[in-house]
Structure formats: structure tokens, C-alpha cells
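Entry under discussion copied across for reference:
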Amino acid sequence: MRKYSQFLLIIPFIGMCLLLPWANRIEVFVFGLPFLLFWIALWMLLSSLILYIVYKLDPENEGSETE
């Protein structure tokens, strides 16, 4: 499982690049923002969360950094 954890990094790419045309709506507002702006801000937060998860699952990060 840890070996394939870097495949999680494709999720933000799909959300930001491939699903962006679907999210291009002006009429819908979320928290007072147009849906497209909300979509981009949401994926910025989710990308940070996914990067943190991949960092924690990476087996090379378990050792100490002192040599």
C-alpha cells in the first residue's frame, strides 16, 4: 500500500485540470463565491491534504534526517 501511495497525487490533477470545465458555473454561489473560485480554493486545500498524506505514507520519510 505504501509503495503505491504516490498515485494519490493524480487526484488533484484530475480535480483541477480535467474537472475544471464542469465546475465553470457563474450562477451557483458557495459561501458568497462563484462556484469556479470556490472549486479552485477547495482543490488548493485538498491538494495540501493529499500531499501531507503521501508524505506520511512514504517509507523513505520514516528514518531520521541526521547523517
Remarks:
- The beta strands are 29-30, 33-34.
